[in-house]
Amino acid sequence: MDDFISVVIPAHNEAPRIGPVLERLQSVLAGESHEIIVVDDGSSDGTGEVASRYGVMVLRNPYRKGYGAALKAGVRRAQGTWVLFLDADGQHDPGEIGPLLDCLDDVDMVIGARDRESLKKTGRVVGRRLLRCLAELLAGREIPDLNSGLRLVRKQLVLDNLALLPNGFSFSTTLTLALMKAGYTVVFAPVKVNVR
């Protein structure tokens, strides 16, 4: 059970995209011990219904609680020693998780780091750069991608920090800094992204 992976996918109004993401993910994880949990965060477009067609666990929030709250709900239900966070929008190809899985024995968290060109295409370049500089100052080390939605982390470390982690998009940033400041081993693996 040490290498059992719980994939947690937060989703809000991703009905057109969640199916291809789940299909590709199931193909990639075919040989791994895993479970897939989709947290439908108050969608109005049938995202949860589409996800349920793929035989995965679907948790439904009755209203939108936020990205971080959806991740927390998934982690609370996860059975794995490891949790893999993956966005539902197709930005990250599940085929890119191999390098993250290769790090299981040596790290506490591995983050799929998007290259600088991909980050530029997502917008908010100046704000993202300022936040990264501040985070690097606080952490005392380089942080190639502070808030990537693709990351693999020991589940217990997330549970230990649940009260600290926000319910919004800053969940990822806060988790990264909390683990770095506590001295856990956090590494980055380069990944390609599909910009929406």
Write structural notes for this entry.
The chain has 196 residues and is an alpha/beta fold. The protein is 37% helix and 20% strand. It has helices at 15-28, 47-52, 67-77, 98-101, 116-121, 125-139, 155-160, 171-181; strands spanning 5-11, 34-41, 57-61, 82-85, 109-114, 151-154, 186-191. It has a seven-stranded mixed sheet. α2 links the parallel β2 (34-41) and β3. It is globular and about 45 Å long. The model has no long low-confidence stretch (mean pLDDT 89).
Features:
single chain; seven-stranded mixed beta sheet; 20% strand; 196 residues; alpha/beta
Tertiary shape: globular
Binned strand content? 15-25%
Give the low-pLDDT segments.
none
Biggest sheet: strands, sense, closure? 7 strands, mixed
Question: Helix tally?
Answer: 8
Q: Level of helix content?
A: 25-40%
Q: Encode the helix/strand succession as letters.
A: EHEHEHEHEHHEHHE
Sheet with the most strands: spatial strand order: 3-2-1-4-6-5-7
Average predicted confidence as pLDDT:
89
Cα gyration radius (Å): 16 Å
Which structural class matches the secondary elements?
alpha/beta
Number of strands: 7
Taking the alpha carbons of the first and last residues, their distance comes to 36 Å
How would you summarize what this structure contains?
The protein is α/β, with parallel strands linked by helices.
Q: What is the strand and helix layout of this fold?
A:
Elements: E1 5-11, H1 15-28, E2 34-41, H2 47-52, E3 57-61, H3 67-77, E4 82-85, H4 98-101, E5 109-114, H5 116-121, H6 125-139, E6 151-154, H7 155-160, H8 171-181, E7 186-191
Parallel strand pairs: 1-2, 1-4, 2-3, 5-7
Antiparallel strand pairs: 4-6, 5-6
